[in-house]
Fold:
Amino acid sequence: MTEATVQARPGGRSARVRVAVHHAVGELLAEEPAEALTIPAIAARAGVHATTVYRRWGSVAQLLGDVATSRFSGDVVVPDTGSLADDLERWMGDVATDLADPDVLALMRATIGSGPDGGSACTADRHAQLGAIIERERARGGKVPSVEQATDTLLGPLYYRAIFAGEPASSEWARGLVATLLTAI
Structure:
Protein backbone atom coordinates (compact mmCIF):
# COMPACT_ATOMS: atom_id res chain seq x y z
CA MET A 1 0.00 0.00 0.00
CA THR A 2 1.42 3.42 -0.95
CA GLU A 3 1.08 6.50 1.16
CA ALA A 4 -1.07 9.21 -0.27
CA THR A 5 0.77 12.46 -0.66
CA VAL A 6 -1.09 15.27 1.04
CA GLN A 7 -0.45 18.72 -0.37
CA ALA A 8 -1.23 21.88 1.50
CA ARG A 9 -3.62 24.07 -0.40
CA PRO A 10 -1.75 27.12 -1.65
CA GLY A 11 -4.74 29.33 -1.13
CA GLY A 12 -8.28 28.17 -1.28
CA ARG A 13 -11.38 30.23 -0.72
CA SER A 14 -10.09 31.89 2.44
CA ALA A 15 -7.02 33.26 0.66
CA ARG A 16 -9.06 34.40 -2.34
CA VAL A 17 -11.49 36.26 -0.06
CA ARG A 18 -8.63 37.95 1.78
CA VAL A 19 -6.98 39.06 -1.46
CA ALA A 20 -10.28 40.29 -2.92
CA VAL A 21 -11.18 42.24 0.23
CA HIS A 22 -7.71 43.78 0.56
CA HIS A 23 -7.82 44.77 -3.11
CA ALA A 24 -11.30 46.27 -2.67
CA VAL A 25 -10.07 48.39 0.26
CA GLY A 26 -7.20 49.73 -1.85
CA GLU A 27 -9.51 50.57 -4.76
CA LEU A 28 -12.07 52.28 -2.56
CA LEU A 29 -9.44 54.35 -0.76
CA ALA A 30 -8.11 55.51 -4.13
CA GLU A 31 -11.60 56.64 -5.15
CA GLU A 32 -13.23 57.96 -1.98
CA PRO A 33 -12.35 59.48 1.38
CA ALA A 34 -11.68 56.99 4.16
CA GLU A 35 -14.87 58.02 5.93
CA ALA A 36 -16.84 56.45 3.06
CA LEU A 37 -15.44 52.99 3.77
CA THR A 38 -18.09 50.62 5.05
CA ILE A 39 -18.14 46.86 5.34
CA PRO A 40 -21.07 46.57 2.88
CA ALA A 41 -19.26 48.76 0.30
CA ILE A 42 -16.03 46.79 0.70
CA ALA A 43 -17.85 43.47 0.48
CA ALA A 44 -19.73 44.54 -2.64
CA ARG A 45 -16.51 45.66 -4.33
CA ALA A 46 -14.79 42.40 -3.34
CA GLY A 47 -17.69 40.27 -4.56
CA VAL A 48 -18.30 38.64 -1.20
CA HIS A 49 -21.14 38.80 1.29
CA ALA A 50 -20.87 41.44 4.02
CA THR A 51 -21.26 38.78 6.72
CA THR A 52 -18.07 37.16 5.45
CA VAL A 53 -16.20 40.41 6.04
CA TYR A 54 -17.83 41.01 9.43
CA ARG A 55 -17.07 37.46 10.53
CA ARG A 56 -13.42 37.65 9.52
CA TRP A 57 -12.57 41.23 10.52
CA GLY A 58 -15.41 42.51 12.69
CA SER A 59 -15.00 46.19 11.84
CA VAL A 60 -13.56 48.56 9.28
CA ALA A 61 -10.81 49.47 11.79
CA GLN A 62 -9.74 45.84 12.18
CA LEU A 63 -9.84 45.33 8.42
CA LEU A 64 -7.74 48.44 7.81
CA GLY A 65 -5.23 47.22 10.41
CA ASP A 66 -4.96 43.87 8.61
CA VAL A 67 -4.57 45.53 5.21
CA ALA A 68 -1.92 47.92 6.57
CA THR A 69 -0.02 45.17 8.36
CA SER A 70 -0.03 43.11 5.19
CA ARG A 71 0.97 46.06 3.02
CA PHE A 72 3.76 47.36 5.24
CA SER A 73 5.37 44.02 6.07
CA GLY A 74 8.47 43.21 4.11
CA ASP A 75 8.09 45.72 1.28
CA VAL A 76 11.23 47.62 2.20
CA VAL A 77 14.38 45.50 2.28
CA VAL A 78 16.83 45.98 5.13
CA PRO A 79 20.19 46.66 3.46
CA ASP A 80 23.48 45.25 4.71
CA THR A 81 26.30 47.34 3.29
CA GLY A 82 28.64 46.87 6.25
CA SER A 83 28.21 50.48 7.36
CA LEU A 84 25.52 51.91 9.65
CA ALA A 85 25.46 55.18 7.74
CA ASP A 86 25.11 53.49 4.36
CA ASP A 87 22.50 51.02 5.63
CA LEU A 88 20.40 53.81 7.13
CA GLU A 89 20.74 56.08 4.08
CA ARG A 90 19.68 53.34 1.68
CA TRP A 91 16.81 52.24 3.95
CA MET A 92 15.56 55.80 4.47
CA GLY A 93 15.57 56.41 0.72
CA ASP A 94 13.43 53.30 0.23
CA VAL A 95 11.01 54.26 3.01
CA ALA A 96 10.68 57.79 1.60
CA THR A 97 9.92 56.38 -1.85
CA ASP A 98 7.27 54.11 -0.33
CA LEU A 99 5.67 57.01 1.55
CA ALA A 100 5.51 59.11 -1.63
CA ASP A 101 3.00 56.65 -3.15
CA PRO A 102 -0.51 58.21 -2.95
CA ASP A 103 -2.11 54.78 -2.39
CA VAL A 104 0.21 54.13 0.54
CA LEU A 105 -0.65 57.51 2.04
CA ALA A 106 -4.39 56.94 1.64
CA LEU A 107 -4.11 53.59 3.42
CA MET A 108 -1.96 55.04 6.20
CA ARG A 109 -4.27 57.99 6.83
CA ALA A 110 -7.33 55.73 6.87
CA THR A 111 -5.67 53.20 9.17
CA ILE A 112 -4.36 55.82 11.59
CA GLY A 113 -7.79 57.45 11.69
CA SER A 114 -9.54 54.14 12.33
CA GLY A 115 -8.53 53.73 15.95
CA PRO A 116 -5.80 53.62 18.55
CA ASP A 117 -4.00 50.65 17.01
CA GLY A 118 -3.93 52.10 13.50
CA GLY A 119 -0.53 53.75 13.81
CA SER A 120 1.08 50.54 14.97
CA ALA A 121 -0.23 48.67 11.94
CA CYS A 122 1.50 51.25 9.73
CA THR A 123 4.82 51.42 11.54
CA ALA A 124 5.51 48.12 13.32
CA ASP A 125 7.49 46.64 10.45
CA ARG A 126 9.52 49.84 10.02
CA HIS A 127 10.46 49.75 13.72
CA ALA A 128 11.52 46.12 13.37
CA GLN A 129 13.63 46.93 10.32
CA LEU A 130 15.28 49.87 12.07
CA GLY A 131 15.94 47.68 15.10
CA ALA A 132 17.57 45.05 12.87
CA ILE A 133 19.88 47.63 11.29
CA ILE A 134 20.91 48.96 14.70
CA GLU A 135 21.41 45.48 16.17
CA ARG A 136 23.58 44.43 13.24
CA GLU A 137 25.81 47.49 13.77
CA ARG A 138 25.96 46.80 17.51
CA ALA A 139 27.11 43.23 16.71
CA ARG A 140 29.86 44.69 14.50
CA GLY A 141 31.02 46.73 17.51
CA GLY A 142 29.88 50.09 16.20
CA LYS A 143 28.42 52.95 18.17
CA VAL A 144 24.64 52.95 17.77
CA PRO A 145 21.64 55.05 18.76
CA SER A 146 18.72 53.52 20.61
CA VAL A 147 15.84 52.42 18.42
CA GLU A 148 13.72 55.13 20.07
CA GLN A 149 16.28 57.83 19.23
CA ALA A 150 16.54 56.58 15.64
CA THR A 151 12.75 56.43 15.30
CA ASP A 152 12.33 59.97 16.60
CA THR A 153 15.10 61.38 14.40
CA LEU A 154 14.47 59.41 11.20
CA LEU A 155 10.89 58.20 11.01
CA GLY A 156 9.22 61.01 12.96
CA PRO A 157 9.99 63.78 10.45
CA LEU A 158 9.52 61.47 7.47
CA TYR A 159 6.07 60.27 8.53
CA TYR A 160 5.03 63.76 9.66
CA ARG A 161 5.82 65.24 6.26
CA ALA A 162 4.07 62.44 4.41
CA ILE A 163 0.93 62.10 6.52
CA PHE A 164 0.27 65.52 8.00
CA ALA A 165 2.09 68.08 5.86
CA GLY A 166 1.03 66.51 2.59
CA GLU A 167 4.56 66.84 1.25
CA PRO A 168 6.24 63.46 1.06
CA ALA A 169 9.96 63.87 1.53
CA SER A 170 12.40 63.20 -1.24
CA SER A 171 14.78 60.29 -0.85
CA GLU A 172 17.68 62.76 -0.62
CA TRP A 173 16.02 64.73 2.20
CA ALA A 174 15.25 61.50 4.06
CA ARG A 175 18.83 60.31 3.73
CA GLY A 176 19.97 63.68 5.12
CA LEU A 177 18.22 62.83 8.40
CA VAL A 178 20.76 60.05 8.86
CA ALA A 179 23.57 62.62 9.22
CA THR A 180 21.55 64.35 11.96
CA LEU A 181 21.14 61.04 13.82
CA LEU A 182 24.78 60.00 13.49
CA THR A 183 25.99 63.42 14.65
CA ALA A 184 23.82 63.06 17.76
CA ILE A 185 25.42 59.77 18.76
Q: What stands out?
A: Confidence is low (pLDDT under 50) at residues 1-9. Residues 118-139 form the longest helix (22 residues). The CA atoms of residues 25 and 42 lie 6 Å apart.
